[in-house]
Specification:
- By secondary structure, this protein is mainly α.
- It contains 8 helices and no strands.
- The longest helix has 28 residues.
Length: about 170
Amino acid sequence: MSTEVSKQPRRPEQRLPLDAIPPHDMAMERGVIGAMILEPTAIEYASIRLKGSDFYDSLFGDVFDALSVLHEMGQPTTDVKLLLSSFKRYGLVDEGFGSAEIAKCVNDSIVANLEFYVGEVARFSRHRQLMLAMTRAYSKLTAPQPDLDAIAESVVKSVSGIQAGDTIEIV
């Protein structure tokens, strides 16, 4: 057994596990969209608590935004034929959100569970935002001469915004 001490200084790992899949739950995202299609009041509830950017799957985020806009305009959202027509105009059908995906969302959703679905989508969104904020801060901290005060201020601002549910710009 060697008693030599390593001459290299100990340093924290230089890489974060960025290849890991960010936290999300597609079933919860489908549940929100399905409930919004099944029940117009679900659109009102979800639109107050979420935004399209909260969805991990950007297509679901676009569908969420489209449903919210259609509802605000007084357009029907429970008639699948009319909904498909609207989704075609928004380009969502071409992106892969056609009748099969509508059926999958509706079948995976129970309107009574909307509050839970929305809470989970929001929680995962905050988790991803915090991961991004911390990853960016870590990256800045590994610079040769990091501005610690500026980094700390940026982290506090980002975390406060995430906690408040604000849309934040993480720089």
